[in-house]
């Protein structure tokens, strides 16, 4: 078989103040044949396709693979130029049997609320008879345009996203079986009409995903067999029509079987209410609770200042609170402040200097911190592991203010791993409190070293409360903006 694979990804927070242009894709831009052996979050289908091509029975034609760190709206020219580059490569590769796209599913550009749907629909016009498969992050906006034009869409199941390569391998295998005529995937989507989500690092999300995978294992081939189940959690920080939680099921040639299961699972999610997400403490109460808790380090997740959600990662609320407790050994990382990091790198390790840092990207970042700091350590490139991938935070510096250490990075990336601190010589075992700029991806690598974990709501800058987000394009009704219509149609007992 002839397989074409390409990847275009970013997650667009349409409320974020950081524009995304073509240069934002430069840090992870791989022309055909140049992608490294380790996948990025959204390019795993490229790696999975290489593995099946290595067996010798298939020919892989690689397209471009590129990714921009989540931020604000993508420029129209940036999106169109990358889209047309990939579509031109597909056109040149024709005829192909299988098209594999590594996407995110929440990319929004000026003029395009559904970039991935647009890309897949245009690919369908070029390759009308090919099997088109796409992998999505579960924080996507699943659209009819995507589902109608693809043969298979598979989303990550895990949050934290520990399974992007495993899902890409599934996608590749199912697309090849489809192209061979062994299966005929048919899709059903159940729209939960809610903005929700859950973490698979805790219950009930953990058992739910285990059950989805058990159903898939039992599914198999044959009439009505369940081939794939994806729960799209959604990405609330975007003003687009398709925001929200949807269940996507593929059954083998049996649309009714897919529809029944999608609705059953979707109604389970609706019935959970808020059970899928942890309690969030406000800034001061989170620090006070961490101090009260036995042992250390207690990890405080600054969920709504997570660069992985498209915001800056430079808010100072927790730093200001920790400075009120100079007796509490603490560490904060990684704060995005290229200017302050550059000052510290220029001054060098051991330097003591007055420094203004953080709180610059937006009003919701809080106010900058002014302090006399000591530069602990610097690095030309802070590279950290993230599951099967690696992530660079660029040149970085660690500074100390008494017993508080802060990692300042020139690049914007989420705090996936303790290496953010340890690569700069910070001993987390000696800290009572460790603040991470991450929503939940930190959990996989920090949980083993944490004495406790607290999710913190500092108020911004990511819009944390969907009920208060000024959506203009979202389909209604949708909870929590409206009562969930599924609960109004005879399922009142669920809410009671
Ligand atoms: Zn995600």
Record keyword descriptors for this entry:
single chain, 496 residues, 9-stranded mixed beta sheet, alpha/beta, disordered C terminus, 6-stranded mixed beta sheet, Rossmann fold, globular
Query: What value does the average pLDDT take?
Result: 95
How many domains make up the coordinates?
A: 3
Bound molecules: zinc ion
Q: What does the largest sheet look like?
A: 9 strands, mixed
Strand order of the largest sheet: 10-20-11-19-12-18-17-14-13
Mass-distribution shape: globular
Radius of gyration: 23 Å
Helix percentage range: 25-40%
Tell me the structural class.
alpha/beta
Number of strand segments:
20
* Low-confidence sequence ranges: 492-496
Strand content: 15-25%
The number of helical segments is 14
Distance between the termini: 54 Å
Structure, explained:
This protein has helices at 44-53, 76-93, 115-126, 144-149, 164-179, 205-219, 255-272, 283-292, 317-322, 338-347, 419-422, 442-446, 485-488, 492-495; strands at residues 2-9, 29-30, 59-67, 98-103, 131-136, 152-155, 185-191, 226-232, 246-252, 280-282, 298-302, 330-336, 352-357, 369-379, 383-386, 389-392, 396-401, 404-409, 433-436, 452-457. The protein has 496 residues and is of the alpha/beta class. α3 links the parallel β4 and β5. The protein folds into 3 domains: 1-182, Rossmann fold (3-Layer(aba) Sandwich), CATH 3.40.50; 184-277 and 466-496, no CATH class; 280-464, no CATH class. α1 (44-53) crosses α5 (164-179) and α2 packs parallel to α3. The termini are far apart. Helices cover 28% and strands 24% of the residues. 57% of the residues are buried. The chain has 14 helices and 20 strands. Bound molecules: zinc ion.
């Amino acid at each position: 078989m002839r397989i074409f694979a390409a990847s275009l990804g970013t997650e667009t927070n349409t409320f974020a103040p950081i524009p995304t242009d073509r240069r934002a894709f430069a840090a992870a831009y791989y022309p055909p044949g140049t992608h490294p052996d380790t996948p990025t979050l959204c390019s795993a289908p490229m790696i999975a396709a290489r593995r099946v091509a290595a067996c010798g029975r298939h020919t892989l034609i690689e397209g471009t693979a590129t990714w921009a760190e989540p931020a604000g709206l993508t420029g129209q020219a940036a999106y169109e130029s990358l889209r047309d580059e990939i579509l031109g490569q597909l056109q040149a590769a024709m005829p192909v049997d299988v098209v594999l796209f590594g996407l995110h599913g929440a990319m929004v550009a000026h003029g395009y609320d559904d970039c991935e749907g647009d890309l897949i629909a245009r690919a369908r016009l070029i390759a009308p008879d090919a099997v088109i498969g796409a992998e999505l992050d579960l924080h996507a906006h699943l659209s009819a345009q995507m589902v109608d034009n693809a043969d298979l869409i598979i989303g990550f199941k895990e949050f934290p996203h520990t399974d992007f390569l495993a899902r890409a391998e599934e996608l590749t295998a199912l697309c090849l079986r489809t192209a061979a005529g062994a299966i005929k995937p048919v899709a059903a989507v159940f729209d939960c009409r809610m903005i929700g989500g859950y973490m698979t690092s805790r219950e009930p999300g953990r058992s739910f995903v285990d059950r989805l995978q058990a159903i898939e294992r039992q599914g198999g081939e044959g009439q009505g067999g369940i081939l794939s189940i994806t729960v799209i959690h959604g990405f609330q920080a975007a003003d687009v029509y398709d925001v929200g939680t949807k269940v996507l099921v593929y059954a083998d040639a049996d649309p009714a079987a897919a529809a029944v299961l999608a609705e059953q699972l979707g109604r389970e999610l609706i019935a959970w209410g808020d059970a899928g997400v942890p309690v969030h403490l406000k800034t001061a109460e989170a620090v006070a609770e961490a101090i009260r808790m036995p042992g250390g380090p207690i990890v405080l997740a600054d969920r709504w200042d997570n660069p992985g959600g498209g915001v800056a990662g430079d808010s100072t609320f927790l730093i200001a609170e920790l400075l009120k407790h100079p007796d509490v050994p603490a560490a904060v990382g990684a704060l995005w402040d290229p200017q302050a990091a550059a000052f510290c790198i220029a001054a060098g390790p051991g330097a003591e200097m007055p420094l203004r840092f953080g709180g610059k990207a937006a009003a919701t970042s809080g106010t900058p911190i002014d302090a006399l700091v000591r530069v602990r350590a610097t690095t030309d490139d802070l590279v950290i592991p993230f599951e099967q991938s690696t992530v660079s935070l660029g040149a970085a510096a660690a500074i100390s203010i008494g017993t508080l250490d802060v990692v300042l990075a020139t690049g914007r990336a989420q705090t996936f791993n303790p290496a953010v601190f340890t690569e700069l010589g910070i001993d987390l075992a000696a800290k009572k409190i460790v603040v991470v700029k991450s929503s939940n991806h930190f959990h996989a690598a920090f949980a083993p070293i944490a004495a406790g974990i607290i999710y913190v709501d500092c108020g911004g800058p990511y819009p944390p409360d969907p009920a208060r987000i000024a959506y203009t394009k979202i389909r209604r009704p949708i909870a929590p903006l409206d009562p969930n219509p599924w609960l109004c149609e005879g399922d009142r007992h669920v809410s009671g």
